[in-house]
Amino acid sequence: MPARPDRRRVGEAAEDAARQLLEGEGLRTLARNVSYRFGEIDLVMRDGDFVVFVEVRYRRHVHFGGGLASVDRRKCRRIVLAARAWLARQPALADAPCRFDVVACSPNGTDWQPAAFTLDDV
């Protein structure tokens, strides 16, 4: 079942806010909404030599730990699988160092967590 239009709009706005924040910090966007049947990456960016895979999480309330806490081990695995698939189609970047960041968005602002998880975490 597709996301409700208002929910999709909120998600797109959160991704736009995250992208603008990261580009303001000097990262360059390589791809958006990379999707495979086994996982999805919201943003793929370049930070110097690093290819950065970014998960954007929007939470209206932080009662259950907010956006950063919502990226569990299962979600990390899915992001890593999608990152590997994306890199396999980008031979020029296949040997670049990678990083997995999370940007948590809420009505109170945006919180960027560089290197939020590593391959050792999954």
Explain what the structure shows.
- Pfam families: UPF0102 (PF02021).
- Belongs to the UPF0102 family.
- InterPro entries: Restrct_endonuc-II-like, tRNA_endonuc-like_dom_sf, UPF0102_YraN-like.
- One of its GO terms (molecular function) is nucleic acid binding.
- With 122 residues, the protein is of the alpha+beta class.
- It starts with a helix and ends in a 5-residue tail after the last strand.
- The protein has one domain: Trna Endonuclease, Chain: A, domain 1, CATH 3.40.1350.
- It has a five-stranded mixed sheet with strand order 1-2-3-4-5.
Outline:
It holds the Pfam family UPF0102. The protein is of the alpha+beta class.
Furnish the topology, listing elements before pairings.
Elements: H1 5-24, E1 28-36, E2 39-47, E3 50-58, H2 66-69, H3 73-88, E4 98-106, E5 109-117
Parallel strand pairs: 3-4
Antiparallel strand pairs: 1-2, 2-3, 4-5
Our estimate of the beta-strand percent is: 35-45%
Could you say how many structural domains there are in total?
A: 1
User: Shape from CA axes?
Assistant: globular
Helix amount, in percent? Answer: 25-40%
Oligomeric nature of the chains = single chain
Distance between the termini: 28 Å
Could you spell the SSE succession in H and E letters? Answer: HEEEHHEE
CA radius of gyration? 14 Å
Instruction: Examine the secondary-structure arrangement and name the CATH architecture.
Output: 3-Layer(aba) Sandwich
CATH topology: Trna Endonuclease, Chain: A, domain 1
What's the β-strand tally? 5
Largest sheet, in brief, is:
5 strands, mixed
How confident overall, as mean pLDDT?
A: 86
The low-pLDDT segments are none
Protein name: UPF0102 protein N788_06535
GO molecular function: nucleic acid binding
Organism: Arenimonas donghaensis DSM 18148 = HO3-R19
Family: Belongs to the UPF0102 family.
